[in-house]
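Onboarding guide, step 5: your first structure request.
Type a short instruction followed by the sequence, for example:

Predict the 3D structure of this protein.
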Amino acid sequence: MKKINSRQRRATKIRAVIRRQNSLRLCVNRTPKHTYAQIFSSDGSAVLVSASTVEKGFGDEGVGHGNVDAAKQIGKLVAERAVAIGITEVAFDRSGYKYHGRIKALADAAREHGLKF
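The system replies with structure tokens like these:
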């Protein structure tokens, strides 16, 4: 089985469990250059909060775009924006990626800044 097929299979399983919980979903996507995080509504029809390394002015602090430090910044941004509109509890959708590196850094930063999952 190819690597991408394995990741997609894991992502499908994770999303099925989250759908049964009927909760908001913090979805993370990563590419070699960028990291993205979005909070979706419980039915998946609307994006409530988003943050990514492609936003204007993100790299001004001297932080790169595709590294762990950038993922920490994205986790902090998405958590602060979510708390500002009243979202405190979400389900973490890692999109089939292994829980280490950038994904772990983003999750830990989001937890530190007020999100519970």
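Each response can be followed by summary notes, for example: The chain has a mean pLDDT of 93.
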